[in-house]
């Protein structure tokens, strides 16, 4: 059976949720070969998850400094591996890093690339949801080893415990641009925006007070999102922006509070499974895509909802 | 120092976009504008020049765009913001080009220009692939500093330093020139072209080139040379009409009931 190479993203050996999604997808297409870049220690902490989701082979692109360099070193080692293995396809998460690596590999392997797929058939026909979810496109790569990036949260992870064989390839990272220092983002207890099952977002309607948004999010175990009006005003970091120039998200539940629903915002959240809206303007366009809309003041409605959820959870 | 900024003309992001029966983006159905995200790159180029002694110090900004005839409007906009010259790659053979072809054409044009610094936006708001800059980096074998929220160029040492802003945090990066820097939308506030700028832009040169000038053959680019193909497309099913309630004091509770019904909690 031909191999599907899956790029496993991780931070210090803690694998991203996309790994379980991509491995689940790869199993339906061919032999699942997980590819991870970093150190042997990082691989050790990642192995359990990779086995749980049915990786048949694991290759470590081993380098102490590979992850402290831009994507070029990973892309070149990964491309060499794909060539040696004669891979059937390469799949990566459709994240900033995944796309950087994918773009580089496409050039190295002279292979076609499809980004932001939400599904992929065993015949390698991809499904993309474009123009803010208004259009569904089916496409396929026609030259080279197909390189496809898959949107986070698009595939339901299913476990298939096994035990993968492990191979290590030592990689020397050629230093091009170097990272001098790092200030890691202060990670709260909340889930990552693009991986979250539930997102509560606030816009200009919060008037800079995100407390009711965060409280509702915490009651639901949700991530916090923001409109561009809110990030431009400096009320919330840019990394939380949802929309055309922010993150594209597709959670099970998206709650938009004080957000009007401009086309560029909808472009980033329209494919959410259930959409709930709280907005005091009954004419706001966001109501057009709401499964449940409340015309009301977010400062009254969200705290009541938060209290109700807490009461139920006990 | 010679700065080159890659810009693209895209359908206005406010317009509803659709695919044409030919399975490509229907560009006629929407107004075309300079990709908003590339405006930040043009603005940053202007600021880098200003911070390093200005045009008097011999720094120049050249815009580069591949696109149909009317992409000239986007180039004029960038020129009216203050860039010095523009190169427009336009060729009927380029219609339907995908990212691999586009990056190849842009890379060949960049090689001719030999800039010290290349600036790009993070994403074109129509294609939304965000892969062109990494592809250019790979093709030109030039370092790529992505997600820059701050850029400083030291002309005397030939170095560029950026703050790379991602979910993981902020990284201080450094590289020698030439290099490619991709800027994020929070980096600056792009200026509006002044009346004087608009008048001056009319006299600035836009050099037109075709793929033959870049030594590229028509078979390698455009829809014929595409590396991926669209099988079919369809409009997504419309979302069903939802429930809408007006808050009279208990809508927060109704919201919770809805979530319970949906089994979210
Ligand atoms: C190229 C481009 C890219 C863009 N990218 C993005 C993007 O990625 N993400 C994004 O979000 N935007 C993006 N935008 C901006 C977008 O066009 C809108 O300007 C933005 O989404 C508006 O944010 P908002 O809904 O929070 O603010 P507004 O449009 O001002 O809406 C605020 C809403 O809050 C409601 N409200 C006010 N007070 C209350 C209250 N107390 N209780 C309840 N409701 C209240 C109001 O009725 C109103 O509907 C982009 C624009 C462009 C041109
Ligand atoms: N046709 C083009 N001409 C010039 N620059 C482009 C073109 N397409 C993309 N770019 C540049 O590459 C960036 C990323 O675009 P994309 O990979 O298409 O999302 C844009 O912000 C531009 O700076």
Compact description:
The complex is a heterodimer of chains A (314) and B (265). By secondary structure, chain A is of the alpha/beta class. Chain A contains 8 helices and 17 strands.
Any overview of this molecule?
The complex is a heterodimer of chains A (314) and B (265). Chain A is an alpha/beta fold. Chain A has 8 helices and 17 strands. The relative contact order of chain A is 0.11. Chain B contains 6 helices and 13 strands. In chain B, the strands form 2 sheets. A 9-stranded mixed beta sheet of chain B has the order 9-8-7-10-6-1-4-5-11, with helices on both faces. In chain B, strands 2-3 form a two-stranded antiparallel sheet. In chain B, strand 8 (159-166) and strand 9 (169-176) form a beta hairpin. With 265 residues, chain B is α/β, with parallel strands linked by helices. In chain B, 27% of the residues lie in helices and 28% in strands. In chain B, helix 2 packs across helix 5 (195-203) and helix 3 (99-113) packs across helix 4 (132-140). Strand 17 (292-295) of chain A pairs parallel with strand 13 of chain B, so a sheet runs across the interface. The site of adenosine monophosphate has 24 residues of chain B, from helix 1, strand 4, helix 3 and helix 4.
């Amino acid at each position: 059976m031909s191999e599907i190479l899956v790029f496993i993203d991780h931070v210090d050996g803690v694998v991203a949720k996309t790994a379980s999604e991509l491995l689940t997808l790869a199993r339906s297409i061919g032999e699942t070969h997980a590819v991870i870049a970093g150190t042997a220690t990082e691989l050790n902490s990642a192995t359990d998850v990779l086995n749980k989701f049915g990786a048949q082979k694991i290759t470590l692109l081993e380098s102490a400094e590979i992850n402290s360099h831009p994507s070029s070193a990973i892309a070149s080692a990964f491309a060499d591996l794909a060539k040696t293995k004669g891979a059937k396809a390469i799949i990566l998460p459709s994240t900033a890093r995944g796309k950087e690596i994918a773009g580089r590999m496409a050039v190295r392997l002279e292979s076609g690339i499809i980004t932001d797929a939400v599904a992929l058939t065993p015949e390698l026909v991809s499904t993309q949801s474009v123009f803010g979810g208004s259009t569904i496109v089916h496409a396929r790569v026609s030259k080279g080893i197909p390189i496809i990036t898959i949107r986070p949260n698009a595939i339901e992870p299913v476990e298939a415990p096994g035990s993968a064989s492990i191979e290590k390839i030592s990689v020397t990272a050629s230093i091009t641009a170097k990272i001098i220092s790092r200030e890691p983002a202060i990670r709260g207890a909340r889930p990552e925006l693009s991986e979250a099952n539930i997102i509560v977002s606030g816009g200009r309607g919060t008037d800079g007070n995100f407390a009711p948004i965060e409280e509702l999010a915490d009651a639901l175990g949700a991530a916090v999102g923001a409109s561009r009006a809110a990030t431009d005003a400096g009320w919330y970091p840019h990394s939380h922006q949802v929309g055309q120039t922010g993150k594209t998200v597709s959670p099970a539940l998206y709650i938009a509070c004080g957000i009007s629903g401009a086309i560029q915002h909808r472009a980033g959240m329209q494919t959410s499974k259930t959409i709930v809206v709280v907005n005091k303007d009954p004419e706001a366009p966001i109501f057009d895509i709401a499964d449940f809309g409340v015309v009301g003041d977010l400062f009254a409605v969200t705290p009541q909802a938060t209290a109700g959820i807490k009461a139920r959870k006990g | 120092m010679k700065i080159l900024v890659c810009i693209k003309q895209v359908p206005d992001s406010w317009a509803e976009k659709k695919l044409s029966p030919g399975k490509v983006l229907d560009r006629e159905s929407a107004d075309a504008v300079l990709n908003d995200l590339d405006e930040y790159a043009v603005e940053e180029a202007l600021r880098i020049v200003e911070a390093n002694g200005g045009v008097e110090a011999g720094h120049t900004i050249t815009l580069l765009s591949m696109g149909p005839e009317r992409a000239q409007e986007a180039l004029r906009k960038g020129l009216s913001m203050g860039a010095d010259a523009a190169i427009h790659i336009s060729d009927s053979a380029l219609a339907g080009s995908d990212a691999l072809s586009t990056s190849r054409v842009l890379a060949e044009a960049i090689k001719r220009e030999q800039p010290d610094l290349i600036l790009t936006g993070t994403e074109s708001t129509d294609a939304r692939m965000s892969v062109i800059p990494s592809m250019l980096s790979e093709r030109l074998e030039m370092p790529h500093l992505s997600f820059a929220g701050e850029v400083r160029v030291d002309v005397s040492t030939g170095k560029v330093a950026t703050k790379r802003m991602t979910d993981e945090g902020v990284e201080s990066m450094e590289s020698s020139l030439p290099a490619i820097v991709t800027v994020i939308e929070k980096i600056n506030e792009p200026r509006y072209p002044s009346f004087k700028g608009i008048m001056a832009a009319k006299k600035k040169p836009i050099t037109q080139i075709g793929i033959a000038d870049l030594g590229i053959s028509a078979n390698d680019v455009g829809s014929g040379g595409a590396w991926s193909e669209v099988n079919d497309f369809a409009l997504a099913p419309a979302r069903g009409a939802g429930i809408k309630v007006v808050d009279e004091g208990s809508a927060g509770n109704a919201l919770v009931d809805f979530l319970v019904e949906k089994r979210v909690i």
